[in-house]
């Protein structure tokens, strides 16, 4: 009986300690502090990571603590851009006790390491206990340099007395990469790089791609029928997918710094492209933005002169056009208060140059760009191979041969020229299915 009770107690997870609910930081500038809402009061602290039941009484492994830090980082996924979302947890010498934890919430706010150290101070952790502890950080701590707006985290970790730091990924930003690791090691800190690197890199794909290419991570989103159509012959399409799939797509929209459509979609559908998270599957502990992503319209000929996309009170709008746009359209845009950027024409003088559009958006700090246009625009992105991910919501309906296909561009003239993508994930959303594909060979590996 004693053995049975011992095994039963080992299988039960320890109770999660209570933690005060985070609130909007008052030390941030008003415009910054109001750009996110604090998480719901439930699940303010994550439960400690648990191993398999057979070893549940042992301390978590280094990888498990890094995955814990990653879950903290994800809380800021929707609000930190153009900064990366980063998490940090500090563990005591016993390998099981959380001394402090934190995550980055918004640009200009405390970084994850600073938040974790502040949490440790609030808990009253003495310096001698910190000296025996270990910090787990999902991304290399920042170093002093030009353009820094917050204190360097590597110096803060050294000053805390910590002697061991595990880092999942070195920062790919050429301005700071490896500088934080070097500073820690120069001051006697034992640094391990690569802990749970694959999982953290998967989360940070948009940031890694942007810092290595200076271009946005492009996600193509489409909601075709089971036979690959996005509209009937008469143009009607509401709705091919159900409410669950449409709510799920709002999370992708919230994860993106900008959302892009072409002039055809802008004229035919008059979309608002605003953020609607009431029914979206956002984890309750995540911070959510108060303003939706930048709305981007490709309009080389100046056709979009009315509609909700010209209403900047809904969300900011940026129109990419060419020299072919008439002066009358430019006057309408100026009067509406939307921003206009002139670029060159696309291939064969049609449309706009996607290359120039991506360079401009990358320079503005857009980490992730969601493309939600029609078949012609999606086909252009695929044909020019400038997308990194596809998100397809397959509706449980069939529209037939007269319907409009979700890709309207030549891609391959033979099977040898077919684009091969890697299936990342499959989710069932009621009667619909969500498929995520990744273009192999991208700039987001560890």
From TrEMBL:
<keyword id="KW-0511">Multifunctional enzyme</keyword>
<dbReference type="InterPro" id="IPR002734">
    <property type="entry name" value="RibDG_C"/>
</dbReference>
<dbReference type="GO" id="GO:0050661">
    <property type="term" value="F:NADP binding"/>
</dbReference>
<feature type="signal peptide">
    <location>
        <begin position="1"/>
        <end position="18"/>
    </location>
</feature>
<feature type="compositionally biased region" description="Pro residues">
    <location>
        <begin position="38"/>
        <end position="50"/>
    </location>
</feature>
<dbReference type="GO" id="GO:0009231">
    <property type="term" value="P:riboflavin biosynthetic process"/>
</dbReference>
<dbReference type="InterPro" id="IPR011549">
    <property type="entry name" value="RibD_C"/>
</dbReference>
<dbReference type="Pfam" id="PF00383">
    <property type="entry name" value="dCMP_cyt_deam_1"/>
</dbReference>
<dbReference type="GO" id="GO:0008703">
    <property type="term" value="F:5-amino-6-(5-phosphoribosylamino)uracil reductase activity"/>
</dbReference>
<keyword id="KW-0521">NADP</keyword>
<feature type="region of interest" description="Disordered">
    <location>
        <begin position="14"/>
        <end position="56"/>
    </location>
</feature>
<dbReference type="Pfam" id="PF01872">
    <property type="entry name" value="RibD_C"/>
</dbReference>
<dbReference type="InterPro" id="IPR002125">
    <property type="entry name" value="CMP_dCMP_dom"/>
</dbReference>
<dbReference type="InterPro" id="IPR016193">
    <property type="entry name" value="Cytidine_deaminase-like"/>
</dbReference>
<dbReference type="InterPro" id="IPR004794">
    <property type="entry name" value="Eubact_RibD"/>
</dbReference>
<keyword id="KW-0560">Oxidoreductase</keyword>
<dbReference type="InterPro" id="IPR024072">
    <property type="entry name" value="DHFR-like_dom_sf"/>
</dbReference>
<protein>
    <recommendedName>
        <fullName>5-amino-6-(5-phosphoribosylamino)uracil reductase</fullName>
        <ecNumber>1.1.1.193</ecNumber>
    </recommendedName>
</protein>
<feature type="compositionally biased region" description="Pro residues">
    <location>
        <begin position="14"/>
        <end position="23"/>
    </location>
</feature>
<keyword id="KW-0732">Signal</keyword>
<dbReference type="GO" id="GO:0008835">
    <property type="term" value="F:diaminohydroxyphosphoribosylaminopyrimidine deaminase activity"/>
</dbReference>
<comment type="pathway">
    <text>Cofactor biosynthesis; riboflavin biosynthesis; 5-amino-6-(D-ribitylamino)uracil from GTP: step 3/4.</text>
</comment>
<feature type="domain" description="CMP/dCMP-type deaminase">
    <location>
        <begin position="60"/>
        <end position="183"/>
    </location>
</feature>
<dbReference type="InterPro" id="IPR050765">
    <property type="entry name" value="Riboflavin_Biosynth_HTPR"/>
</dbReference>
């Amino acid at each position: 009986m004693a053995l049975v009770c011992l095994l039963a107690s080992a299988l039960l997870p320890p109770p999660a300690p209570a933690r005060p609910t985070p609130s909007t930081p008052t030390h941030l500038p008003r415009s910054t502090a109001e750009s996110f809402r604090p998480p719901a009061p439930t699940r303010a602290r994550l439960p400690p990571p648990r191993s398999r039941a057979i070893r549940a009484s042992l301390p978590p492994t280094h990888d498990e603590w890094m995955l814990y830090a990653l879950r903290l980082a994800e809380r800021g996924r929707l609000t930190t851009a153009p900064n990366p979302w980063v998490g940090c947890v500090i563990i005591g010498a016993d390998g099981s006790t959380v001394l402090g934890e934190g995550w980055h919430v918004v640009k200009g706010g405390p970084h994850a390491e600073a938040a974790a150290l502040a949490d440790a101070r609030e808990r009253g952790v003495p310096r001698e206990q910190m000296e025996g502890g270990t910090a787990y950080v999902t991304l290399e701590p920042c170093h002093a340099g030009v353009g820094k707006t917050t204190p360097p985290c590597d110096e803060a970790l050294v000053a805390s007395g910590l002697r061991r730091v595990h880092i999942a990924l070195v920062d790919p930003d050429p301005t700071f990469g490896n500088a934080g690791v070097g500073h820690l090691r120069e001051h006697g800190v034992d640094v391990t790089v690569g802990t749970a690197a694959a999982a953290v890199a998967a989360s940070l794909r948009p940031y890694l791609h942007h810092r290595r290419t200076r271009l946005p991570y492009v996600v193509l989103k489409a909601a075709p029928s089971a036979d690959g159509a996005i509209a009937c012959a008469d143009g009607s399409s509401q709705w091919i997918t159900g409410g669950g799939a449409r709510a799920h797509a709002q999370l992708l929209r919230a994860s993106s710094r900008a959302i892009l459509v072409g002039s055809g979609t802008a004229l035919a559908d008059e979309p608002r492209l605003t953020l609607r998270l009431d029914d979206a599957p956002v984890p309750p502990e995540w911070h959510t933005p108060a303003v939706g992503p930048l709305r981007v319209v490709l309009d080389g000929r100046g056709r979009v002169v009315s509609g909700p996309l010209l209403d900047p009170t809904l969300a900011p709008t940026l129109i990419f056009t060419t020299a072919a746009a008439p002066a009358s359209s430019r006057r309408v845009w100026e009067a509406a208060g939307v921003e206009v950027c002139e670029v060159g024409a696309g291939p064969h003088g049609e449309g706009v140059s996607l290359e120039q559009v991506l360079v401009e958006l990358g320079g503005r700090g857009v980490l992730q760009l969601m493309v939600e246009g029609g078949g012609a625009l999606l086909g252009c992105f695929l044909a020019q191979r400038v997308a990194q991910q596809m998100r397809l919501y397959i509706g449980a309906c069939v529209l037939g041969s007269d319907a409009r296909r979700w890709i309207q561009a030549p891609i391959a003239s033979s099977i040898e020229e077919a684009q091969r993508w890697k299936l990342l994930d499959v989710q069932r959303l009621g009667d619909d299915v969500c498929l995520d594909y990744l273009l192999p060979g991208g700039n987001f590996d560890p």
